């Protein structure tokens, strides 16, 4: 058995040793009908000593492509424990396979799962760590996606706004991720989408401020509150920012909140 494994490894030396970051030996290649058909065709060419035939190169490329497909299917099957939408970002949109920290932990998990009974505690711990890492990567992705937006729409820092779960903004952002897979072909659509996203963020900031300012006199001196340039007033803006910070611990800061309001 060991000799057969060594010979098989030699014969497959042309394959990517870690497709999608998964060690080749962990993949069920021999159980895949499509891969087996290609492998038999390649072996037939080798048997006729046509190893340098262009057809051989084509077969090896197709086998490598199939290996990557199998690796993606393998990872998808083994990632059922992950939150499918950390930070409301579909897990498929998060570059898990390109993150060395995530992949190292995942390889540890795959090893541990070979003996699930003995490694139950370690498996649970690694799955928690991997979920936390996926959440961090989702946050990083969101930060990068928002880097070109106005960072303080209407004077409100982006991180204070409930952007992730907005029913209008979220589908727009998902659509943008899909379009960005082929940005040149979709340049005009992408530009229009960016404008829609920016406009929606402004609307969210406006709604956020309206709720935050509900305690204020809505018609000071008979002038409607929304017509006053409050966000442009430095002193008011600073007080509003201080109030926002205090409200993160409302019980502890009750008196300070009342004074500031």
From TrEMBL:
Provide the residue span(s) of the region labelled Disordered: 45-64
Biased segments, Basic and acidic residues type: 50-64
**Where does the DUF7623 domain start and stop, copy by copy?**
15-77, 82-145, 150-212, 216-261
Pfam families for this protein: DUF7623 (PF24610)
Source taxon at top rank: Eukaryota
Name-wise, this protein is: Calpain-like cysteine peptidase
UniProt source species: Leishmania infantum
Lineage of this protein's species? Eukaryota, Discoba, Euglenozoa, Kinetoplastea, Metakinetoplastina
């Amino acid at each position: 058995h060991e000799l057969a494994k060594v010979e098989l490894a030699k014969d497959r030396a042309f394959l990517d040793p870690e497709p999608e970051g998964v060690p080749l030996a962990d993949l069920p290649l021999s159980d895949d009908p499509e891969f087996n058909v290609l492998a038999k065709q390649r072996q037939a060419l080798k048997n006729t000593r046509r190893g340098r035939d262009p057809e051989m190169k084509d077969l090896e490329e197709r086998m490598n492509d199939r290996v990557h497909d199998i690796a993606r299917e393998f990872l998808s099957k083994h990632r059922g424990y992950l939150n499918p939408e950390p930070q409301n970002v579909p897990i498929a949109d998060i570059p898990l396979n390109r993150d060395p920290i995530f992949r190292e932990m995942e390889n540890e998990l795959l090893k541990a799962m070979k003996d699930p009974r003995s490694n139950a505690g370690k498996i649970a711990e690694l799955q928690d760590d991997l979920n936390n890492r996926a959440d961090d990567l989702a946050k990083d992705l969101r930060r990068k996606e928002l880097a070109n937006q106005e960072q303080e729409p209407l004077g409100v820092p982006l991180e204070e706004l409930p952007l992730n779960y907005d029913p209008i903004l979220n589908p727009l952002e998902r659509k943008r991720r899909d379009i960005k897979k082929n940005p040149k072909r979709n340049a005009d659509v992408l530009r229009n989408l960016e404008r829609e996203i920016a406009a929606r963020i402004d609307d969210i900031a406006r709604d956020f401020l309206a709720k935050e300012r509900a305690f204020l006199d809505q018609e000071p001196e008979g002038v409607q509150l929304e017509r006053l340039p409050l966000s442009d007033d430095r002193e008011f803006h600073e007080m509003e920012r201080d109030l926002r910070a205090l409200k993160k611990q409302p019980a502890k800061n009750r008196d300070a909140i009342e004074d500031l309001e």
